[in-house]
Amino acid sequence: MQREGNIFEERTTSEMGELGRIAIQGERGSNSHMAALEMLGAVEVVACSVSAEVIDAVLTQRVDAAVLPIENSLHGSVAEHYDLLLAHAVRIDGESLLRIRHNLIAAPGVKLEEIRNVLSHPVALSQCRRFLAEFAQAKAVPFYDTAGSVKHVMEAGLRDTAGVAPELAAKEYGAAVLVAGIEDHAQNYTRFHLLRRSADARPSGLRAANKLSVAFAVEHRPGTLVTALERLRDAGVDLTKIESRPVPGRPWEYVFYVELRFADEAMADEAVRALKPYCSLVKELGRYAAA
Question: pTM for the complete prediction?
Answer without folding.
Answer: 0.90
